[in-house]
Amino acid sequence: MIPFVTHDALWRNGLAGAIPSGICFAAAGVFLFLAARRVFGGDAPAFAAAAVFALNPNVLYLGSIPMTEPAFWGSWMALLYFTVRYRDTGGWGAVVGAAAAVSMAALSRYEGWFLIPFAALYFARRRLSAGIVFGVLASFAPLYWLGHNWWLQGDALYFLRGPGSAWAIQGDAPYPGKGDWWAALYYFRHAAILGAGPVLALAGLAGVVAALARRVFWPLLLLLLPGAFYVWSMHSSRTPIFIPTLWPYSYYNSRYGLAALPLLAFAVAALVAFTPRGLRAWCAAVLVAASAVPWLLEPQPKNWVTWQESLVNSEARRDWTHQAAQYLASHYVLGSGIITTSGDITGVYREAGIPLRETFTGDNGLPWLAAVKRPDLFLWQEWAVAMAGDEVENSIQTASRYGMRYRLEKTIPVKGAPVIEIYRRTGGIHGTS
Predict the structure, then answer these.
(1) What angle do CA 402, 403, 404 make, to 5 degrees?
(2) Is 356:349 a contact under the CB 8 Å cutoff?
(3) Rounded distance, CA 187 to CA 305, Å?
(4) Which of 4, 99, 221, 245 could form a disulfide with 16 if both were Cys (CB 3.0 to 4.6 A apart)?
């Protein structure tokens, strides 16, 4: 997103996040098509696989917003393509392509890490040297991420046990599937059906049988792995999935169920390939149309679980974002500077039309640490926007001990959300007296 967010207009209207996701979504469809055509030997099966994937409204929604799923899908489908290409060609280009694909998958989502040993074994079974080369190249991505965490946070496993990790967010609170394999599988299965739709789920199961009958084993295994990773995560890694049809009848991580969608789409291709050659185009058209029927019968966005989760879980955030943006848009003068945090609160500046370069956050690294520890020497920003109790509020309190005066200009309390506080400097060191 970096080349796009440098243009303020693209950042403000959301296209800076939508463009990369859209590119990755398209790449996922292309590589899925190419892999299915290579495995099943025809355009009709490949068309069916790509179409049922690309026409799913939950996939379309995630493919239009700055989430990591589209990047993972594109990388994952590229890995699928290069592995089946290697089966046919045995070329080193396929090995390098697969390593590049899985590296991008590993840098986008942690289930990408889970794919590496399985893909390495796939190559090693055919040629040991290919497995070694693939494993070495693919390992650079996880090693980079460990080093990145160590360099910035002093802990290589910061992503696993830091304040933003699943362990920290969920804590010891119980949830369905925690320590229970059957419950974890049950919830994932229902999330998968909710995301894919009932017709595609049934067609996909039939297609898995058809693929096994054709001895198509590796693609099914590779496409099964992310779903297995989520079931494992629910069981052992404090990663729940909540969907509105099961207790506690709410929304959380419902998008994880879409990990089953590429498997179901590929299985639909197997079902098409299982029919007589002269009927394959008709079979593909019927299966694609039938898979879309549930969404066409009830076309409202409220029936798309990923959209609805975003809507429900962002209601409070959208409220305080709008209030804070309105206030700053009418009071902030460019160049005065804002000390704040990154993350959800960044939406305030996007809506207010304040360029992100006007903000000063923890992402600024050492200068931020210096300003927080010694505001009398390094804190010059006129404004501060904080969530009650966060580092910004603490730095304002620290600044007051050095005679720096920040006045609380506006408090925004919204039910179910942290209180937003907007401060403005009124005097002290580096300020007016």
Answers:
(1) 95
(2) yes
(3) 14
(4) 4
What is the length of the chain? 433
Cα–Cα distance between 315 and 322 in angstroms, integer? 11
- φ/ψ of residue 216, rounded to 5: -95, 95
Look up residue 239 and give its amino acid: T
Domain locations in the chain as residue ranges: 2-312, 315-427
Q: What is the pTM of this model?
A: 0.94
Cβ-contact 320, 410 below 8 angstroms: no
Q: According to the model, what pLDDT value does residue 433 have?
A: 42
Task: At 357, list the tokens.
Answer: 């370069």
Other beta carbons less than 10 A from residue 432's beta carbon: 9
Beta strands in 111-150 (DSSP E): none
The confidence band for 432, taking pLDDT boundaries of 50, 70 and 90, is very low
- Annotate 70-115 with DSSP letters as a single string: HHHHHHHHHHHHHHHHHHHH--HHHHHHHHHHHHHHHHH-THHHHH
Q: By percentage, how much of the chain surpasses pLDDT 70? A: 99
> What's the one-letter identity of residue 72?
F
- Interval 130-144 mean pLDDT: 97
* Chain-centre distance for alpha carbon 264: 20
* Residues 71-109 pLDDT 10s: 999 999 999 999 999 999 999 999 999 999 999 999 999
CA–CA separation, 200 and 367 (whole Å): 52
4: tokens are: 């796009």
Question: For tokens 């109790």, what's the residue?
Answer: 389
Pinpoint the alpha helices (H) of 332-390: 346-352, 366-373, 375-378
CB atoms within 10 A of CB 51: 23
Q: Sheet of 359-360: strands edge to edge?
A: 359-360, 338-339, 383-387, 420-427, 405-412
Structure tokens at 227: 């779903």
Maximum CA extent, the chain: 86
Q: Which two tokens stand for residue 396?
A: 């304002």
On whether the CB atoms of residues 231 and 292 are closer than 8 A, the answer is: no
- Angle CA(101)–CA(224)–CA(191) in degrees, nearest 5? 110
Q: Match 């080093």 to its residue by tokens.
A: 147
